Amino acid sequence: MSTPELPEGLVAPSYDTASLAAVLPAAAGALGHDLTTATGLTAAGCRAALGLPDADRVVVVLVDGLGIRNLAERGGHAPFLRGLLRERDEATATLTSSFPSTTAAGLSILGTGTAPGRTGMLGYTQRNPETGKLAAVVQWRDLGDPADVQREPTVLETLAAAGTRVVAPGPRKFAGSGMSQAALRGPVHVAAETFEQRVDATVAALRRPVDPAGTGQRLVYLYQGDVDKTGHGFGWDSWQWGDALEATDQELRRLVRSVPRGTLVLVTADHGQIKADPAHQWDVATDPALHPGVALVGGEPRALHLYTEPGTDPADVVARWTERLGEHALVVPRDQAVADGWFGPVAPHVLPAIGDVVVAMTGAATVVDSRVHSANARAMPGVHGSLTPHEMLVPLLTATS
To answer: Coiled-coil segments, which residues (predicted)?
Structure first.
């Protein structure tokens, strides 16, 4: 697998000790556990690379959509997180996300310590090789058994099997969902609808009396989706996004002040966001250069999987899309994307789910398909998925109570 050769200004995906994939193995190392993921990450190696101390209690916070550049540029709304950012060495405060830089892929590499090419979770939508239909990954629609799609053991279930009490507070709808069972299986789910309630549940889980049959170690996985949701709806440059970040920052400050002494708190994200440029949007359904030969459009408007019609040479699609989109997109055949490591090591059962052609948008451009994307989705101001620094670079912030 070669190193991706990308145009200047784009960030190559990474699945090593400087990536999002290293966070949970590093947390396991901080707890004193030894494990090795299918892509060769070790708990000890990740812990050393990220500079984590020993701990008996760890909280891993995932703030969906909070890229490190988004945080740095709007840090006035997050004085607590901004302070943590200043305390970290730059080399360990910034991690690289996956391709695509989106929740399904990001959470799966976080959960398993591997890569999308191993987890089979490749975007917001992707083709189900068994049915040939376009499946929705986040909603887990038309994908089948989560354990069959995502076959890697998760770090959380490995820790739970070793005696660590692993808890994940979250909305009731997440309990047993396909997405959770695929990417993050293993924790005890605690129902908590608001982020404030989830912080309370985290503190309670860490303060719970030690089970005599267990190790006494605790790990809590804490998810916050409000920042990403607000960014999609209003843009990350909006006052609404600032308010969502401010509320998150306040709760994380309260979390660190409330957990038992010695608890290690890690704050990271699955991806960042950019603001889409409506003047640079193309519609596959109506564009005569983009439509021919394309049976299904998967992924998302910033990172697309193109599944070609039978008898269509993907090279023809690559040539037409490259000519039509010009500098606004990087269009490559599947074999090149795989060889260049966009998805990390690719397992044989995952390969058919990758598009015959893979597209990464540059700048603030998007490609939509009005046959499947609603008018609201096509007008969404906040987007992500591609290889720009705002989308690909995420924080790793640490605090010890």
So the answer is: none
Q: Would you say 206 and 218 are in contact if contact means Cβ atoms under 8 Å apart? A: yes
Write the CB contacts of 90 (distance below 8 Å, at least 6 apart in sequence).
none
The Cα–Cα gap between 37 and 40 comes to: 5
Which residue matches tokens 């400050």? Answer: 253
Q: Which region, left, alpha or beta, applies to residue 186 given φ > 0 means left and ψ of -120 to 50 means alpha?
A: left
Q: Which two tokens stand for residue 44?
A: 């000890």
Tell me how far apart the alpha carbons of residues 164 and 153 are, in angstroms, rounded to a whole number: 16
The answer to whether 149 and 137 are in contact (CB under 8 A) is no
Amino acid identity at 370: S
What digits encode the pLDDT tens for the residues 362-386?
Answer: 999 999 999 989 999 999 999 999 9
CB 290 within 8 A of CB 367: yes
At what angle are helices 103-112 and 23-30 packed, to 10 degrees?
30
Query: In Å, how far from its chain's centre is CA 108?
Result: 7
Reply yes or no: is the peptide bond before residue 100 cis, omega within 30 of 0: yes
pTM: 0.96
Give CA separation, 260 vs 62, 203, 318, in Å. Answer: 20, 8, 55
Q: 79: closest CA among 71, 68, 91?
A: 71
* Lookup: tokens for 114: 């591997």
Q: Are 222 and 203 in contact (CB under 8 A)?
A: no
Could you give the C-alpha distances from 390 to 136, 342, 394, in angstroms and in order?
A: 25, 17, 8
Contact 283, 301 (CB under 8 A): no
- Name which of 173, 109, 179 is nearest 147 in CA terms: 179
234/380 Cα distance (integer angstroms): 8
Where do we find the tokens 């400087």?
Answer: 18
Bridge partners (DSSP) of residue 136 are: 125, 141
Nearest to 266 by CA among 37, 61, 110, 13: 61
Q: What's the confidence (pLDDT) of residue 362?
A: 97
Q: Which two tokens stand for residue 320?
A: 């037409």
Q: Check residue 321 and give its pLDDT.
A: 98
